[in-house]
Sequence to fold (347 residues):
Amino acid sequence: MPELGTPLEQLGFLTIGLFDSADPGPGHESVLKVIELGEQLGYDSAWLRHRHLQYGISSPLAVLAAATQRTNRIEFGTAVTPLGWENSLRLAEDLATVDLLSGGRLNPGVSVGEPRNFEHFKNNLYPNSADVEDFSYERVARLLRAIEGQPVSTFQGVQGIETFSARVEPHSPGLRKRMWYGGASLRSAQWAGLNGLNFLSSSVVRSETSESDEVPPFAQIQRSHIEAFRAAHPDGARARASQGLVVIPTDRASRTQRAKYQAYVDARTARTKTPPGPNQMMFALDVIGNSNQIAEALYADAGFREVREVVFALPFSFDHEDYVQIITDIAELLGPALGWKPKTPET
Fold:
């Protein structure tokens, strides 16, 4: 629990990887360059969001496979892969392949639930089974079994000149311990803990209060989820949980950048003050200011005080040079203000 003066152990960043639909290549290349810079700055990890039918990276594993060949140390994550879009057996093959290419640096984060706007594309995604697809936690359990190396086929042996395995190949033995679940509810936090997953808590949580109840502050709800996760996890207090917030340090930003950043935060602040709707979702405030101001705000945050590692989310719509300034300031100014030490090739 990082109180003031307790060092933060792990520092990562998360990006959506926006691109121009008329010329998507440069946007993907920008993400790879940001990841390379992250390694040079000593970050522990770089994470990619999953975006389908949008102008953000739809295939993080393909991008991370490329990143494995440009880096040597930094770890990679997905935050998160929505399993409603995926076949668990096939995804297990891809995850193991990228993990092996990286030398065991992959941290896949997943979630479940019906895909957003499902009714508009379900017949193309699941032309024969859309109305009977199971979007429950069983989809995660099936993926975990495949990653663990449990049999997925009733046949193994030789047919002609080909040899077949009953488990997913390739198999990456350490991958199961690096699986994360991205949850916004108390139930998800408890389920992740009971199933021995790591837990990603982001800037969106479910309030889970009735209309007559007073809604607790965002940070208090996030903290309760992390506590519930660890209470259910076999590792207890040692179970890995990460907090994800949008933080925007302005220390070395230009005047133009500062104005852009503030306008971005101002446009998103109204949603944090709106009472939870039918889905009871609440949003965290973006944290903007110089690194000392951000560090002070984080140490006052009940959710932050429950974790030893963070994955700070980069704003969605900024330019490459903005991301360079932000992740550089986080690594060189904010991180040290939180007691974090950058990693070197030796560490």
Notes: The chain has one domain: 10-185+198-220+238-337.
